[in-house]
Amino acid sequence: MTNQTKSQFIAVASITSELSAVMVVAKEISLAAANAKAIAFRAGDKAKGFQPITDFINELAKETIELVTNINIYALVLYRLTVDEYQKTVAYNKFELAAKMAEDAPYAKSMQEPVDHARLSMQDCQRQFKRDVSQLLGQLEAVMHHARAARVIAANSRIEASQAGEYLQSLQAVAESVDKAAHTIHDNVQRCRIALSIYRNS
């Protein structure tokens, strides 16, 4: 296995791992939204400004889960492409070696066509991998956007929670959990982007 193929396998595996963590955190945000909604309902007018925020938090969590689900499908495609590229690279290397060994043989020129075909097939696979990496990076950017939005919502949640009287601590805890989750999602997705960015420019 080539170093390039090994690093691609590692990159795709690390993305899958990071995204699993993002999915867990997004589900936690959804749960936090449900808890916040219940608290805001009990608080009534004291948490009137907090009630619509819970809908935003829940919607954000759902959209993040949907995005991550789609990204996981892309990650699986990248894994299959990496396997395919590895197999085609092995085939190309074998054809090329056979052609070199048969240089002095009477029908040596007949080897050129399969060598060229194997090389083109390998290169097509490499180009497809780069195209899919670019698309995946675009989807990861969308998740980053959601993480940034979650931080803004968390900041607004703190402001609204401060007006909630005896419910302040409960709603502040929700705001803190959303902010912490947003940080986690941002960091995990950033690691995915770093792992992939080298392939977009290579």
Automatic annotation (TrEMBL):
Can you name this protein?
Chemotaxis protein
The organism encoding this protein is Methylobacter tundripaludum
